[in-house]
Amino acid sequence: MAHEQQLIVKRAWLGPGGPEGFLIVASSSLRWQPAPGSAQPGQELRIPLAAITNNQRAKDKPLVRITVATAQLQQQQQQQQQPPAGPAQQHHVFQFESVADRDAALDVLTKVIAALVSGPAAANGSAGAAGGKGAGGPGDGPAVAGGFSRPQRQQMLARDADLRALWEELVGGGVLSEADFWGGVASRLAAAQPAAWGTAAGGGSPAGSGAMAAGGPRRRVGLSNILQRLEAEVDGRHQRVLRVSLAPEQVAQIFAEQPAVLRAYREHVPHRMSEEDFWRRYVRHEMHKESKRKARAEGLTPAAAAASVVDDAGGDIFREAAAAVAAEAAARPGAAAAHRERVDPTLDLMASEGERYQGFGLAHAATREPELDSERHRLAASQQHHHDAAGLGLGLAGLGLEDPDDLAAAINRHGQVVLQGVEALAQVEAQLRSAPGAPAPPGSNNTAAAAAAGRAGAPAGAPGGSAAAAAAGPGPGSSATAGGGEDDGGEPHRRRRRHSAGLHDLQEPAPPQLDSLSIADPRRYFERMKDQAFGGPQGSGGGGGWPGGGGGWPGGGLAGAAAVLAAVQPGCLRVPPMDPAAAEAALLEATPLARALAEDEAAGPGGSALPRAGGAGSRDPASSVPPETLAFLRRTVLAVNEACRHFWRSLPANTAARREKAARLAKLLEAKRSEVEALNDRARGVEGRFIRQLLKPPMDMLLGALVRWDEEVQKRGGVPTGHS
Amino acid sequence: MADADGDLLVLLLDLALLRPDNPAAASMGVPPTEILAQLLAFTNAYTMLNSRNRLAIFAGQHDMCHLVHLGLGEEANSSTASVFPAGCLHTRLSELVARCSAAAAAAPSHAAAPSSFALSGGLSRALCLIHRLQHHRPGGGGGGGRRGRPRLLALVASPDASMQYIPVMNAIFSAQRAEVVLDAVVLAPEDSSFLQQAAHLTGGLYFRPAATTGLLGLLLNYFVTDSSTRGQLDVSQELGVDFRASCFCHKYVIETGFVCSVCLSIFCQPSRACSTCGTAFTTGAGAGAAGAGAGAAARGGG
Questions:
Q1: Which InterPro entries does this chain map to (chain B) (predicted)?
Q2: Are B32 and A585 within 8 A, CB to CB?
Q3: A-chain residues near B63 (CB < 8 A)
């Protein structure tokens, strides 16, 4: 017993509210020892693992009940000349600090028990060997290493060829101990479940998950951001338990929205009550208010209402705070108005510049405004007969089909009206009546759009959107707003006013007037847009055109540059799909592998290349690399990765054991570096480039580790112990 | 990708790219508006790739180079900056061009402006900015543990000015020492020897695309990623770099010349004394023609 290995130690109480102590899972027994300075002294408890018949975890509580078969226990106790225990089965309840602690301890316990059941002799014999040197085969080694029992390890190695190769290289080569190796595997599995690294690759089925399924180490999914978790709130009407979780963001929001709560919090927490108590009172107070509201809405009699309303014990602090806040507000008349004035209702329109992209931007806007889309199409169909690009802008402007920015401007106007009342509404209406075409009302900080419009020669704030602006170009198009359409009356005008004002939610809803669906062929729309994009020189707008040699620009030199700048709208960049040949040429400019592949394929059917359809799709360079080479590459990369992981974990090498381990790993890495370099040198042709590309990351890892090791050696003064 | 730190890219933009009367423009076959649109799209893409990416843009011509945009990513506590730098850049470029036009109109000169780019000034200012940004990060930290190296991408349409040989080479060596990667895209009929050497010495990329229709593809393929990511990509170039030096006396590009053994100044013809450091050379026996880099005899000079 004296030599049994302690596998995990956790702080635990012997039963809820019992004496404090430590629960130790050892290789052959489960022990509980009282804490040295504990207020309630307890007696040490030792349960042989073989006597444990069951363990039950309490749901969401850090409790476990261990069931012990008395017969086996008595047998053990008789061997130790102890008096027998009474009942047929015994139960021991342990309380841990947390559920995670409980699960961690039980995971180890179940694995050790499973190991004992499958091979008691081996477990008893070599339990203390964990952490020693690598053994001759996977059947040897400690009973438990890295949390895996021996049969589990054997199963994993048998199923996963990669893991087996890695094990043979690192453990078989004496670089790592079994405990180190399997500890690494366990930590990797814990971090990457259910996509278990390595163990899922070889056999097609997740060997790791099979091995882990029995014990099932539970994955911890990050830290919770829950600040307060309140329970046992009793709903007075239904006698239900309410569980409320408060995150810091929610608390901040409550404080921002309810100054009385903030005041009460500052007055009472933490000197008069705990934070949890405060929030419990708050929830109860809110429920009280809610139940009162409901009772009032249901029209209950005072007696029935009093019976149904939730008790508001402790809510006085909120009432007092609310009264104090109200008194303060009353003492400062106009404070609320001043506060309201400080609120800036406007949106930052710079952020919506990207919405004015052509193509997808337009499509996006159209999905949000389907009725505008149909108008657009109808207009596009009518303009198809006239071939007048400038007219398109004029027509769009006339119909009031605003660009997406206008939505933000409408929201701004809405905010203005909400904050400033009906005066602002009248002001906005007056503006719309006097100058329906244009300027944005005060409060709209659409400076970028205004500047852009100014550069393009159009008045600031002019509706017309990206299409109109792009078509208009530098000079012409400035009259796009002239068409106005202020007198066109009817539905377009009403709709325009509604969209421009953005106040439709404050007014009576307009009666639905359904138009017949008249979407023209979308292809024509896109073709026309394409013509506009590429046919600049002929187009009257000519925004994107290039007259060649600068003949069509206002002047050469900087004047020409200014004209070029004016012709490009940064908010609606016209970047058409690139010519495939140009894109391919750009890609092949400095990518040797892609270029070699392209040359190889261009060489004809003599090579193993697959025919390319329309210049698209190229073969996978891995297809021509021999499978054994790929397998070798895979093993090399896995070995380098694993060795580097262990290497970095053993730094800083401030103990002899760490230095020895790091030295062994550095030696292995040096050997791997030679292998990788040899592979690089041998690689030829397309496959060679592919292999070199594959080996870049491991080579970087190797060099980084070796450079660090050289620094470590210099720092520690000479070659450390074990480095040969 | 250096996600945690973001990347730092400084763009040097030759305003000649935007001039329709640029002699190289006709040979490129693409209107300047296209080039500008692609450039703006690239700046948007680069900024959108990582919210911590920092982008600075210098624009210049033969006699000046100004900072027209500085985006410090999410670390900058500026709520006014747009997500997309294209708008701001466009505005500042327009202002710069207007200012330059006004200056040119105010002081008309009879001589035509030289068709070159103030590369040395631009490189120097960009390197100073990189140095400052590297050492004064708003989020704290002096740049320790950085994965990527800062990059400087020169988009140039003007030919090399041999008069700038010395300051440009000094800037390149400074960049090499400061571990700044110099990339270059030359949209001109002839290669830029300066930028070829810059890319070669600092581990950068140099391109002179035959047609600028694929400029955006080029920019997105090779220059949108940070240097550490680029190291993992399949990118390499086998350039025929023109390593010829320019003489210090006449700024001629020479293959064979005379080198001062004291200050390593290069001359295309023998002289009595070094015009750079003043060392007096012995006549006759010591002085002789040698390849650039080989020593010519000099007297004294310690």
A1: TFIIH_Tfb4/GTF2H3, vWFA_dom_sf
A2: no
A3: none
